[in-house]
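2024-03-11 09:14:02 DEBUG pipeline.ingest accepted 1 chain
2024-03-11 09:14:02 DEBUG pipeline.ingest length=295
2024-03-11 09:14:03 DEBUG pipeline.predict start
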Amino acid sequence: MTISAEEKLNQKLQKPDYLIIAGSTLYGTDTSDSDKDYRGFILPPFEYLVGALEFEQYNPKCSHEDIVIYSLKKFIKLLMNGDPVCLEMLFAPEWAINYRSEIGGIIRRNRNLFLSRKFINRILGYSESEFRKVKGVTLKPIKKNPNEQQVIDDIRNVFHLPKQEMDGVINILFAHHSKKIVNSTRKLGQKRKSQIEKFGYCVSSASHTVRLLGQLLELLTELKITFPRPNAEFLRNIKLGKISLEQVESTRSELMLQIKVAEHQTLLPKTCSSKKIFGLYYSIIRSSMLKELDG
């Protein structure tokens, strides 16, 4: 019986080429109220590769799980642009991998192809964004015209990016605008607001700040990222409000100094080789199509 392209896609999404448990479980910082995060990618069916059908990502709305599954092409492009979450996926340990097809294995084995200095500014940007949330403040462009706001709204409505990715896009768009620090507690979610009220600062954002900087330092010096994080207990204690804000700020400052030194010594290439990466991508497509035609 012939099945439709949409049915083939749904079958792929049920068992992706690569799927990991991400977020706090991966980092080793999960607590009793932590949600489950899953990230993965698929090579879409033949009809989505050469026909008029399109697939970029799958992000169903679940109350207790956060699931994002990209097309392999989008996943590769995100990596080439320095997306930190996508990079984390390729360094997940065996116990965190739910599914891994032959295609997933190929991409994972070639993860060093995607390493570049582009991750430096992206990770630093995410970390800085989280650190501003620690105290409930944000950097707001002093001048933002209606056309620029419309661009932001269009990106939100068309691409439905996760908040962390959307924050990164906004940072890039307004990188050259003059900015001022403003209170943003009103825009924080209820969870973050309650943390500030209880502990005097947003503990989850503080934990993310320190974690991201630690991951960047390891990437710069070791060309890898370890999960669970070696300092997972310290990160979890930050989330639980057991570490003072002064200790968090001191740790952040120390990591920033180490990163500054490591940037000058790192073996990370300036950019990754698009020729090698897309050569790998096209060979995967070619092999997959031949198998599908033979089948």
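2024-03-11 09:14:41 DEBUG pipeline.report Residues 118-265 form one domain.
2024-03-11 09:14:41 DEBUG pipeline.predict end
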